[in-house]
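Pipeline run #58 for the internal structure catalog. This entry was flagged by the ingest filter as a single-chain record with no existing model, so it goes straight to prediction. Upstream metadata was stripped on purpose; only the residue string is passed forward. Reviewer on rotation: M.T. Logging verbosity set to normal.
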Amino acid sequence: MLALLLALSQGGCAMLGLSASPTNPATGPDATASEPAGNPVVKVEIDAPGDLKDLLERYLDLSRLARLTKGDAVTDTELQRLLDAAPAQVRGLLQTEGYFAPETSVQRLPAAAPGLPETVHLRVTTGPRTRVSRVTFEVEGDLERAVAAGDVRATSTLADLRSNWKLAPGDNFINADWSDAKATALARLRSAGYAAATWSGTGAEVDPQQHNARLFLVADSGPLFLSGRIKVDGLARQDDSTVQALAGFAPGTPVTEALMLDYQERLQKAGLFESVTVTLDTDPEQAAAATVNVRLREAPVQVYTVGVGISGNTGPRASLEHVYRRVFGLAVSSTNKLTLGRVEQAWTGEISTHPAERSRRWLLGGTIDRLVSSTDVVASQRLRFGRAQDTRALEQLSFIEAERGVRSTDLSQTSVFALSVNHHIVLRRLDSVLLPTDGYTLALQGGVGRSHGNQSASGFFTRAYGRLTYYRPLGQSWYGLARVELGQVFLPSRVAAPDSQLFRAGGDDSVRGYAYRSLGPLNDGVVGSGSSLATGSIELARPIMASMPSLWGAMFVDAGNAANDFGSLKPVLGYGVGVRWRSPVGPLRLDLAWGQAVRKLRLHFSVGIAF
């Protein structure tokens, strides 16, 4: 078997030796350069498959001669030299696309008439494309020694490198793919903690007769980098201890790319810094205790924000928010927000410690809220104390809350005071938190409390709530969304709970086609809040046009209601069509929905994702 060893290099990537590289514009003609005036000296006709014809027309010296020497004389000797060199040059160019046994015929035809150029006809038969027949991937350095010693992590890293190698047996052997596969594998090894990894050697052994290629790769992993000290630059007012605590790893931990990105994300989510960059000192001599460099720029200590907005649920509103990131010079932040609208007027405030280990913080917060609907006015005052944890995949909040709620109608006014213990969890497994198309979010809430009202007895109550939203691509251009929401408050006879602990349905993120909080049990003809909730939604969406991929059209069906118990809950339907703009700040939704029970069309619009 005749084998051609294309490349074997030490400490770097193997490259094919070609007269011109189609992937490097510096070695080829400038396609945008202006062409000389006049008739071409020679006319070149290339008979080859479409993509390869474009390649040859762009890089073959004969083609370049036809483009660049119009009106200029070229000696017969020079033209013949290019004709003689053409088959070898064609072979070199086609090797980059995996054709190692092409056949080329060159025919020189005289000019059809005086003053016209002569013609060169180039016919190329590619032959079978070369495919990868075998891949041998080995390592040396610390990774090799750890694998030999039976280290589980090292064995998993090597297995991951081999299983994720991009140019597998059976694939076409194309030079660009070969280079890309090597770059990807090396980046993967470095991201696994071997930051100084290089190639000891790579090679491709091609058999032109059998049209196959055997690939050989040896990676020198270098040392495994372990975390040492964390060096922080850019602090002016905030504490170094906050930055250190958010690391989430101890000295001596293997420094992977995921570990660095997670640390950077925790610092960004802390709300204390405008920009954060986490890098590793990749000096191999210091790998046993490598320095982790954190460069950051602090956010302003105080920020005032004025906002105006409108939504389909609560109508127009204005807001004023104040954030103070260093209260009394302590590692404590506070937030106060006042919202004034036609439907809702509210103040919310919170003071919390800066995030510590595992992104946990203590908080003390309060809310004063007044919500107006067509049938009643609900006012509430809440005070809570608890502990929160916020990460990319998990948010949880445990808290004790005291609440007073007052509901007023034209016929009566009820007041309820409650003290409760609660735990909320939000799980996210999404391809994108801002613009998801695949994955799910799951929100769970549970609480136990004791309440007393002016028209009810004292007693304990239990509250449970869950909301699952599932995203899934469907085929080439369709996307699906499904949502299920369930809630239940368990109340003994004659015991009441604050209205905010109960449920109503209807609105943008509930059952479209119905007004916000308009679905619930009827008491004396007035819609109230119920102890049971069930809603669901199915939606299909796709881009409206290829030229605007961020603009989607959608169709949906919603169903659900709230009631005093599941036995009396009667779901109502809402369905319609909408438009989605996947903007940089989140999806903007505009929906026109038909409420079947009320037989009316309603326009809904919102920005962002409801978790």
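catalog note: The domain at 227-298 is CATH 3.10.20.310 (Ubiquitin-like (UB roll)).
catalog note: The helical segments are 50-59, 61-68, 76-95, 142-148, 152-163, 175-191, 240-245, 257-269.
status: ready for reviewer M.T.
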